[in-house]
Amino acid sequence: MRISVCxxxxxxxxxxxxxxxxxxxxxxxADQLEVIVTDNNSTDSTRDVAESAGHxxxxxxxxxxxxxxxxxxxNTGIRASHGEIICFLDDDTTIDPDYFxxxxxxxxxxxxxxxxxxxxxxxxxxxxxxxxxxxxYNVADGLLVRFDEGDQDGDLQHSWFGAGMSIxxxxxxKHGLFSEHLSRVGRTEGAGEDSDMFLRxxxxxxxxxxxxxxxxxxxxxxxxxxxxxxxxxYFERGKSIGLNDPQSYHSVNQIPLWTIRTALKHAxxxxxxxxxxxxxxxxxxxxxxxGLMCGYQxxxxxxVTAAPPTLEDSATQHARNISK
Length: 324
Known about the structure:
With about 325 residues, the chain is α/β, with parallel strands linked by helices. It has two domains: about 5-225, Spore Coat Polysaccharide Biosynthesis Protein SpsA, Chain A (Alpha-Beta Complex); about 225-300. The protein is built from nine helices and twelve strands. The chain has helices at about 15-25, 45-55, 70-80, 100-110, 170-175, 195-205, 225-245, 255-270, 275-300, and strands at about 5-10, 35-40, 60-65, 85-90, 95, 115-125, 155, 165-170, 210-220, 250, 255, 320-324. Strands 1, 2, 3, 4, 5, 6, 7, 8, 9 and 12 form a ten-stranded mixed β-sheet that branches. Helix 1 (about 15-25) packs parallel to helix 2 (about 45-55). It is globular, with a radius of gyration of 20 Å. The two termini are about 25 Å apart.
């Protein structure tokens, strides 16, 4: 089973070198692996790092995508790929040596359209004391890019994370590429391009599975461990959910009434007693609910109408310089 590895990157040349090393050291036939790095308009030494690593792989492409946004970078990589399976890795991750074998095994045994990886946090700093990372007031799932559905493979019921997900190329040909109007830009949080892809494939009746042995390691840096980042992250997640929720609700000025009630509840709880972790929990969910309101307003005002691009849709291929 031939695999194309698509890595979109932006100004992380040092981290890019690490993910490329982990791909090179993977226990998988080199002639069955194609590596594609899409430089999303970086201004650092990304190109030098990518091209210096190119000779270490049997098949390698360096692409430059001028249009800023992770979805644009991924779609550029998809269009240039040749593998039956396309694995998407983030530029700040590394993979377990058995990652590709595990992905290939689940695709073969379940004959599925896509596979979600197990994402494990890699701590580069002490764990926080201002909010909980487990227990009833846990706010860390997602925030720390952690996705762990246990040790059993099989049907995937919850939306995957983009770091480490894999999709059949034929499925992308059939259902379209990543929605570019939902794209994460630069260091901002995304607007749900990964969840949007998951939901589109699920709604189309495609089988999506979880591969517990396909392990991706995602760093946890100190910048994620302050409440300012937590609030921002939860707001963006809420906005993403609102943008992608197809349901209709009783609303005021396009804001669902239930979100107003939820916001009031979390606002009151965040001001009350009960310890720092409890207050942080309600504060995070207050910001998520505010993001929901923003997302629903954008969706209802029809500002979000773009259909996902296709492999053949040349109109969506923005100006780029491609160098192999």
